[in-house]
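Please, structure for the following, as tokens.
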Amino acid sequence: MSAVLALSEDKILPVSAVLNAIRDLGDEAVEQCDPQIITQASSLSQLPVESFSIDTVLSISSSHELPGDQLLEEISRVLKPGGTILIYKKLTSDKGDVHKAISALEGKLLLAGFLDAQRIQLKSVVPAEVASFGVKGKKPTWKIGSSFAIKKAPKSLAKLQVDDDSDLIDEDTLLTEEDLKKPQLPLVGDCEVGSTRKACKNCICGRAEAEEKVEKLGLTMDQLNNPQSACGSCGLGDAFRCGTCPYKGLPPFKLGEKVSLSSNFLVADI
């Protein structure tokens, strides 16, 4: 036989009212019970019932304050894991407030730790002038402090399915005639090849002529490409150069910039 506890804020709660409310649950096992009734439950700080001993707790009231947060904690304490809480409200005010009261009560049950809080259809006979509704919830099936192992999904290697009948592409067909051509390497005798950058024997780029001019002047390529002056007057021209100036005979230039020689620089005037 199921253990049922009925709570009310009134001084008297008829057993018939409790049985009518229990019938709305539609549980035949709960209907065949001898309910324990506690009146004026709102004044109690603790229910005189052992923990985890009640299958169903029924609360019947017309006040918004019942059940309060403290009483909901006590109901959760005395309910067995998976037990049911059923709250009946009788409102004599406007029936339009019923939806707000239901939403508020469902939220209250969820915050108290109950699951599946929802409205139930009333099957018992209720006076037409009274706006009544019922909300039920479930206590979780686990106890406080209980633990259980989490089963991890077994790791399985991904299987690669290869279709032997599929058409494979020949990699050689992806190459074009241009890709198959052998790259042309620069000639070894080119003036631009090598770290010394000297003119080759058959030079046609003008480097051999430039080197010849430098040799005749007695200067190095570095002196022509990056001319420097200790006195600061070498770049102004022969009129400002001393007798031992290495740049004597060269046209004026700017220090740090390459000295440009004309094509007929060393050609005789006569």
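The first strand starts at residue 4 and ends at 8. Residues 75 and 227 are 101 Å apart (CA to CA).
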